[in-house]
Amino acid sequence: xxxSAGSYATWAVLLAAALLLWSLSLSNAHRPARPSEVVGRLxxxxxxxxxxxxxxxxxxxxxxxx
Length: 66
Hints:
Layout: H1 3-26, H2 35-43, H3 46-64
């Protein structure tokens, strides 16, 4: 698999996940969690906190430091 094909596959998976969440949000039976709920659950566990800090460092380095 080339890097280009891997990139297209990654974007296709992200699109499929977004469409799935959008379709689930339209039904009353399934309500996706709000971002604050997800972050709150992650912040209660030490490994989740490390993951949040690493994600923030990654985003800061790649988006804000340029």
